[in-house]
Specification:
It contains 20 helices and 18 strands. With about 575 residues, the protein is an alpha/beta fold. Strands 2-1-3-4-6-5 form a six-stranded parallel sheet, sandwiched between helices. Strands 9-8-7-10-11-12 form a six-stranded parallel sheet. Strand 3, helix 4 and strand 4 form a beta-alpha-beta unit.
């Protein structure tokens, strides 16, 4: 068959562990579409909106920890993948993007659905390939198979990420009558293995010597997926060296009993004297981004003597402007290595423990202030988010949309020890586009409860996350609808402008009720404290339908409640 080498792309993907494909409708991509939908070992779904499709594929790949395939037709369709590809790149999620294209001679000739697609995703993919236009020559067959092998291997290598393959096709695009799509046998599979020898012994000894010389050691974990073995190694390290561990909600470090979860809250109000007492001498970081602006400002203002960042390979970000050493090793391996020493005794050990206790004291002060606040909290978004997070089932996924949703959740945090709650958020680029679609992707490939907390702007911006023919019985969504981008009324600047409501807050009148009816979802509406209690009971029942719980409230009331929250925390410092 003319397209045999293209059909074999699906077989190679399956042989290399790919099990999921998201296909966008189109004609130019027919050879690729037919390949994947006819392969028994790959689950293929069709999503009409390419922007949503990209984030759904990202969610699938993130949940499964293996590359998912993303296919579209030629022309502007591919550009709509760009936000999801950028998110996958910075969040280190593996994706294989296959874009169908027109033959090279028709580029720039005003032919329909024809744009310049080679390297279209620029620096936001790990690599971009273009397949040959002759698919039958033996050299072309060899090149295509080698390219698919290399693309999947590269997507899986640290740091994981998206890889683009552009595929120009000539007509006819469809098989002849009675021609069946089949797959070749004994395709060449090229594997990739990286031998991790760890850190050289001499360097380990030097790092250990330096580590014991610091009295104030602070660990900060950035965004990462939950990993029980890493958490246990980190907890042992923390206990051995009396090192406090800071972790935003997206760090998934809440299973550790000593994790400092509320640094974002108390560092914004505690004052310079307290900040000086929290100043680390050695900062150790791992993971990706940190939500807390207060934590970032604190560590940029109170720079450590040394800053070590741990990651398996590659260049490291210098988020806190203090980086002095990159340790190219696995975090679990590194923390185990450093925790293997005996606990220190004497005066030096006491100094380290004092530093640990200072951080713990600020954490406990904040917990007490928060407890007082939530006993008397008025009806608000923050209160409902607190109720939802406090009552999550023991094993579930919590998805957080960007803007105020992820910030509310970060202020509230997850109770220590609840390691079955895994947190996900599009914090690679931190955009509101695709927050719902990513949660949909996760829901497609697991059967556990999935909860999404989202604001109205992110929710309605991504409404095409539901524009498909697949059920989502394990996805429940809390929509915080204050009819606009409330964050712009909370940060300095936009809220004080007379043009703020129209051009920054962008007030809107939509309700999720109509969307729920359109897609046949269960819908509950909340606008009072009493309704909130009753609605949450049903929201936690998984009975085979997608559920939307919409809190409709005023921006003014939510701003007042949030200001009261900050004032309550500040009052713990006598202010």
């Amino acid at each position: 068959m003319r397209y045999q080498s293209i059909y074999d792309i699906a077989e190679l993907c399956a042989l290399k562990g790919v099990t999921q494909a998201i296909l966008c409708p189109g004609s130019r991509c027919a050879p690729l579409t037919l390949a994947f939908i006819n392969h028994n070992d790959i689950k293929s779904r069709t999503i009409s909106d390419e922007r949503s499709a990209g984030f759904i594929a990202l969610g699938i790949a993130h949940q499964s920890q293996t590359p998912s395939v993303l296919v579209c037709t030629s022309g502007s369709a591919s550009y709509n993948f760009s936000p999801a590809i950028a998110e996958a790149f910075f969040q280190q999620v593996p994706l294989i993007i296959l874009t169908a294209d027109r033959p090279k001679e028709w580029i720039d000739q005003y032919d329909g659905q024809t744009i310049r697609q080679e390297h279209i995703f620029g620096a936001h993919v790990k690599k971009s390939f273009t397949l040959p236009e002759d698919y039958e020559h033996p050299d072309s067959v060899w090149f295509i198979q080698r390219t698919i092998n290399e693309a999947i291997n590269l997507s899986n290598e640290y740091p994981k990420g998206p890889v683009h393959i552009n595929a120009p096709f000539r007509e006819p695009l469809y098989p002849a009558k009675n021609e069946k799509v089949s797959f070749s046998k004994n395709l060449k599979v090229i594997s990739s293995t990286k031998m991790l020898s760890g850190v050289p012994d001499a360097e380990i000894q030097e790092l250990r010597r330096k580590l014991t010389g610091f009295s104030k050691v602070l660990v900060v974990g950035g965004q990462q997926d939950f990993d029980d073995t890493t958490c246990k190694a980190l907890e042992k390290f923390s206990e051995t060296h009396h090192a406090p561990v800071l972790g935003d909600i997206i760090s998934n470090l809440h299973s550790n009993k000593n994790t400092i979860r509320y640094s974002d809250t108390f560092l914004s109000v505690c004052g310079k004297d307290v900040e000086k007492s929290l100043h680390p001498e050695l900062l150790i970081t791992f993971g990706k981004s940190v939500i807390s602006k207060s934590t970032k400002i604190f560590l940029r203002n109170f720079k450590p003597v040394e800053h070590w960042h741990i990651q398996p390979s590659g260049s490291a970000a210098d988020t806190f402007q203090s980086l002095t050493k990159v340790i190219h090793a696995d975090p679990e391996y590194t923390f185990k290595l450093f925790a293997s020493e005996k606990k220190e005794k004497g005066f030096e050990a006491q100094k380290k423990e004092n530093f640990f206790r200072v951080w713990q004291a600020e954490e406990h002060r904040t917990i007490l202030s928060m407890g007082s606040y939530f006993k008397s909290i008025p009806f608000s978004e923050l209160g409902l988010v607190k109720e939802l997070i406090s009552n999550l089932p023991a094993r579930c996924n919590l998805h957080l949309a960007n803007s105020m949703s992820v910030r509310y959740a970060n202020f509230i945090g997850i109770e220590s020890g609840k390691k079955g709650i895994h947190v996900f958020s599009n914090r690679g680029t931190s955009g509101i586009d695709g927050c719902t679609s990513a949660a949909v992707g996760h829901s497609f490939c697991n059967e556990i409860p999935n909860f999404l907390i989202t604001g109205d702007m992110a929710f309605f911006y991504d409404r095409n996350a539901f524009w498909h023919n697949y059920l989502l019985p394990n996805l429940h969504i809390l929509v915080l609808n204050n009819h606009g981008g409330i964050i712009f009324n909370m940060i300095d600047g936009p809220g004080q402008l007379k043009e703020g409501d129209e051009y920054f807050v962008t007030k809107q009148r939509l309700s999720a009720r109509n969307l729920a009816a359109e897609f046949n979802f269960d819908y509950s509406h909340v606008d009072s404290q009493q309704k909130m209690k009753n609605a949450l009971k049903g929201f936690f029942v998984f009975d085979g339908k997608t559920k939307i719980l919409e809190l409709e409230s005023s921006q003014e009331g939510n701003i007042t409640a949030f200001e009261f929250f900050k004032q309550q925390i500040k009052s713990g410092y006598g202010a």
